[in-house]
Design goal:
alpha/beta; Nucleotidyltransferase, domain 5; five-stranded mixed beta sheet; two-stranded parallel sheet; 3 helices; 36% helix; 21% strand
């Protein structure tokens, strides 16, 4: 006499939940990869042992050829001041991150700091200039 089960077991695997998981992971990695903004301007930053992090408002770049960029737009010092005034005018305080190549003369760095100090005097604000560095190896 053969005994039959009322609910026979099936040796199948439902792939619907696996495909949902794969799509969720795909969406997660696509979103997080767009949040990481790589530096479009290639710089060799000076090294430092400090680990200070600040909330940045805007970024100024100076590359090895001593070209100045406001975000990714090339500018001279006059255009830098007008661009920073527009970017910083609605804020009382903030941080201007200066990413200068390690071969840039100090005068270019001081010129950018002077521009931010002039803006602070004109708009009666308290914006800081932070020099970006890379960790020592």
């Amino acid at each position: 006499m053969a005994i039959k089960l009322r609910n026979p077991r099936k040796a199948e695997f439902n792939m619907a939940s696996m495909s949902d998981l794969v799509f969720l992971l795909l969406i997660f990695f696509m979103l997080t990869s767009t949040l990481v903004a790589p530096n479009a301007i290639k710089l060799l930053l000076p090294s430092s042992e400090s680990r200070t992090m600040a909330r940045q408002t805007i970024t100024v770049y100076i590359n090895a050829e001593n070209n100045i960029f406001l975000e990714e737009t090339p500018v001279d010092l006059d255009a830098l001041q007008s661009g920073l005034v527009v970017a910083l005018q609605n804020q009382e305080s903030g941080s201007v991150v200066l990413r200068a190549d390690q071969s840039v003369p100090v005068q270019y760095i001081v010129s950018v700091i002077d521009v931010v100090n002039n803006i602070n005097g004109m708009l009666q604000t308290r914006h800081n200039v932070i020099l970006a560095t890379q960790p020592r190896r």
